[in-house]
Amino acid sequence: MQDSLTSGIDSKIITWRKLKPLVVIVILVLLFIFNVRYLSRFFDWDSSVYTLNIQRDRIHSVFFNPHHLGFESTGYLFWKTAKSIFPNADIMFTLRIRILISSLIFLYFFITMMDKLYNDFIGSLLLGFCVSFTQAFWFYSHHNDTPLIHSCLVVLLYLSLVITARTGMNFLRMIGIGILHLGTLYFHQSNAILFPMVLVGFLITDKWKNKDWNFSSRMMVGLIYNSVIGILIILSYVLVGFGILGRELGAVGEKHFSFWLFLYAAQERWGMSGSEKNYFLYFYRGIGDAFLNFQGVNERFRVNFNNDWNIKNTPYNLNLLFWIFILLSGLLNIRRLGKLFSKEVILLSFWLIPSILFYTWWEGYFFEFWVGVTTGLWIVAYLIMKSFDFEQWTATSKAIRNVILLIAGSFFFIVNFTFSTLPRSKGIQYGYLEGFKDKVEKIANEKIYFKNN
Other C-beta atoms within 10 Å of 417: how many? Predict the structure, then answer.
């Protein structure tokens, strides 16, 4: 009788484990339909330039921007494939769909990997819910721009390193990590700052093929791995710069290889700009806009506790209070947090601290630079709340955590949908397009929105 009961319970557990991926897929399909219905029709400088580069149908054009070799080139392949199936497809709509699909594929792996790590399916779903409706992630999942894909790859790289640190490394896992690592670099140069995180991931992994792995071997393999990735990236830039674009090493000028490789810095823009900087304001504005609706680059504070219930301030006040609560909770329980999630804390430190410092310096008031960091902060919030899962009241703690995530996710959904996603879906809107607005207007006249044409 006991064996029969145990067998029945095991059978139900196995069935549920098989059903979980299907449940996630169904939810993401519904999310896809919802997002397509309210897909952005906003045309700004970057998204329009990248789209026009792809539309030119020239290899030189899709590799013009060196800081993201993989973005326009894979967009070009996606566009050519889509056009071969749907000859009359609108280019910007197609490229927005590509980004949206990428975001949903990421959410699938994010939810399933978090569930695999922490055996918390509902919590992982709710965490994915919070991530997907955070302003930066949601905005750029509708936008043909660089931030989303490379940020998603960084998060998956972090989660892969956590899984290997907890369960052990092998050759196939190392290849998988390498592919993700290369992807982060091909889709954005700035992810070169994360080489130390990957090396640390090797150093804190104490198993190789389920056998003890001594520290000196980990260090050697980690250094060889990083060297191989570095060489592959260098060879890629040499191939594209000299082989495809015909850059030179002669007289310094626009045709010089280094001018192309460090394009933005060479133009005295972004982090190399000589203008006066307020780094505290950069961080505050960038991270604040990344959570809540984007209202343009205005050098002013959004938080104002002297006017708590003003619609312009209330969401920002509540967001700040939420994160203060989370971080104070983490400090209160820091010993247990470090004991339960020591490897996660180490990897998060080597991911988030360099990223926050670098992107604050690199004109951090643009919220595009904070897509990955905000997702990392959601993981931090989850781990802090999970650190309160004491044996005596695990179920209660889990319920409280899920309620907090549900309320937070609902809050971000309501605010960001009302003030950002919905308005941007209501007809064609233009950002700063000086000098080429006429070209953008042609691609903005999209046939799929036939009622407006």
Answer: 17
